Structure formats: structure tokens, C-alpha cells
Amino acid sequence: MSRMLTALAMTLALPALAQAATPAPAPAKAPAPAWDVGPIPEAPGSCRARLAGPQIDLIMMINNDGKLVLIAGSPAWKHDKADFDSLLTVNGGAPMHLSGTSLGPLFLTLVTDDLYPKVHDAKTLDWTLPDGQFHVATPRMGPAIDTLRTCTKTEAAKAKP
């Protein structure tokens, strides 16, 4: 993963994780998890999609090449920049090997073209990372990715001089 992508991911994802670190009062009945998709004020021209979870937050971005970047984040993680290998299982299917970069509270990986359709249609992800195994319910992931792509194009057009 390039240095620029890692720096951009940190800029985009850290504000979301900082919000997650401050617990909000629990509602009487917790609503179903929902994706928060939108521009990032600290990084003009960029958007992110975030799904807050009980174990980890799942964050997605679109890189400059139009590829999906999948990020697992937790405020408890504190990593020096390092490459890592992981296993990702989509909808209970066969595990797939992914490599990426860890930095601070984030694990970042590029979604390959062959994996993209599976991730787009995901209902659940099981991700084995150096910090543990995590099961994430991913409701409406495809529409979140589509909205993220639209947001990214719109914000990139606004940011051009």
C-alpha cells in the first residue's frame, strides 16, 4: 500500500474512530447498524463509509485508482506501520488471503478485482487480523459502496480548482 494511501486513510478514518471512542448513551432499544457515508472535511475531495461495530469499525474508501479500500479500525489498537496478512471470509464462504498495512488503530487492505463482487454483495464478513478474529454484520454493503463511489466522485469534482 502506498504511503500516500496510508496517510490519506489515517486522515479519513481517525476522526471517525475518535468519535467511536467516546461512548454515546445507549438508546432504550439499539437501532440496526447503519452505514455512515459522507465527505471528510479534513480531506477535501474524499469520502468514507463507516459502519460502527461492537468489536471493530469497518471503514471503506475509494482510492485514486477507483479501487475499494477496506479498513478495520479500533481505538484500542496501536500499531507501528507494518505489512500484515489476513483471512477474509465473505458470507461464510471460503477464506481468502489478503495483505495490507497496519498503522495506529487501522488495518488497511485493497479489495482486489476478483474479490470486489463478493464484498459488494456481503451480508457478513469474518476477518482474521493480527489482533484477533472479528465477525461483522454488513447490512446493505452494496448500496453503501455505491453511495461511497457517488460521494467520492462528487467531492473530487468539487475539490478540483
In short:
This protein has 3 helices and 9 strands.
Write the layout of secondary structure elements.
Blueprint: H1 3-21, E1 36-39, E2 47-51, E3 57-62, E4 68-73, E5 79-90, E6 96-104, E7 106-110, H2 116-120, E8 124-129, E9 132-137, H3 141-159
Antiparallel strand pairs: 1-2, 2-3, 3-4, 4-7, 5-6, 5-8, 6-7, 8-9
Describe the structure.
This protein has 161 residues and is α+β, with helices and mostly antiparallel strands. Helices cover 27% and strands 37% of the residues. It has helices spanning 3-21, 116-120, 141-159, and strands at residues 36-39, 47-51, 57-62, 68-73, 79-90, 96-104, 106-110, 124-129, 132-137. The chain has a 9-stranded antiparallel β-sheet with strand order 1-2-3-4-7-6-5-8-9. The longest helix is centred in the N-terminal third of the chain and has 19 residues, at 3-21. It is globular, with a radius of gyration of 15 Å. The two termini are 27 Å apart. The model is unreliable at 1-8 and 20-31 (pLDDT under 50).
Write out key terms for the chains shown.
single chain; 161 residues; alpha+beta; 3 helices; disordered N terminus
Give, in order, the helices and strands: HEEEEEEEHEEH
- Mean pLDDT, to the nearest integer, reads 85
What does the radius of gyration come to? 15 Å
Q: What's the end-to-end separation, in Å?
A: 27 Å
Q: Assign an overall shape.
A: globular
By DSSP (H or I, 4+ residues per run), the number of helices equals 3
Roughly how much helix do the residues carry, as a percent range? Answer: 25-40%
